[in-house]
Structure formats: C-alpha cells, structure tokens
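Example record

The entry below shows one chain as it appears in the dataset: sequence first, then structure tokens.
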Amino acid sequence: AETGNVQCFSCIDRNDGGCLKNRVGTVTCNPDEKCAETITTIETSHNQTNILTKGCGDGRLENTLEDFTFHGINAYIRSSQCNGSFCNTNLKTDQNESSDTEYSNPNGVQCYSCIGNRGGECSTLKASVVNCYSKYRFCFDGNVTLTIGNFSAVIPLKSCSRTSRCPVQMFSSNEVTLKIKGACCEGNLCNQDLSNKTQYTDLSPLVPLDELVTKNTSISSTSVPEMS
C-alpha cells in the first residue's frame, strides 16, 4: 500500500459517458482516504438507470452491496474502495443489479413511465404509457435525490407502484443517501403530474381538490354557539 496522499480518478457518469477515458478527471485525496467508486442503480417497474461516481472515499470500506425498496421502486448501491493511486477502475455503467421482473401478467392499469437523467425526459409529452402488471396496481410520480459525498442529483421518476400511498422515505448507506419523494395514485394515467401532492407519513391518501373545497365549505358554514 502507498503512504501519503493517493491520486484517484474522478468523474460522474449519468449514462452520458462522463467516466470515459477521454473525459475522466483526477483528484488528490487526503492521507486517510482511499480511491473509491460507487454505482447506484435505480429500477422502476419498467425502467432502469445507473449513476457511476469515482473519487475519494473515507477509507473504511472496501466492497459493499446494499439494496432498498420503496413501494416497487428498487435501488441498488455497489461501492468499492481500493489501495493505491488510480485503482478505482473496476465499476462500469453496464454493471448493475436488478430484480426478477415478470411482465406477463398485465392487470389492466396504465401509468406514465420514465426516468429523467437529463432535463425534460420525464415530462408527460415524453414519458411512455406502460401496462402495469402483477401487484403494480397504482401509479407514482416524484423524484429520487441521490447524494454521494459532494455530488447530488435529482432524478425525476414516473412508474407503476404497488401501493396507493407513497410517503417520503430516506435511505443511507455509508457516503450514499437516497431520498424518494412524491405521491402515488389510483386510476389509469393518474400520475401525469403529482408534483404538488407530495405524500408524508402523517397525511391521508390523495384527496381530489374539489372534495377538500367541499369539506372546507361545509365546515365553515356550520354555526357555532357563542360563549355566554
């Protein structure tokens, strides 16, 4: 093992070739750090994307693989740290994990589906319409915020979902943090735009706006006896 500060490859690849040989950068790490690389796979009911980062790591771990599940959205995080300069060359964007997906049992529900690596990819005009299957009987619209060290990215998602209620969740694994935020709904193509209907753990499932207005009107019109 080397002593002193190691030098490492440094890059971010969002399926755009950012870690190719002609684009990768270098970085000098602190004495207690190692070269590191992490590939994060986000998998929805019908789509998948990989984000690869290379740089300096905290030096504590060598190889890890963790997975998280959010109402049918899966995330896999594979991390590797190594000794020596420029040793972080093992992970590629075509290396990923995935669940065993079975599309042969459509259930009659349709949702918009997309993963937005770059701007506009998850707009309703560009999102695909997919046939949900098996236990995916609802729709999701939201985003994943991925943070790895100093790198942060917001990834829009539309997908089939396994539940009608999808409160905000956060997962952490070493230097990686995933925050999934959005909402789920019931009905064909109901996930066109749920950006203003984020669900939290202490809120009831989505309620149509006109129903809320009706309830509020009836409450405000109820007379309350004056205190004597």
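Notes for this example: The longest helix spans residues 209-220. The CA atoms of residues 7 and 28 lie 4 Å apart.
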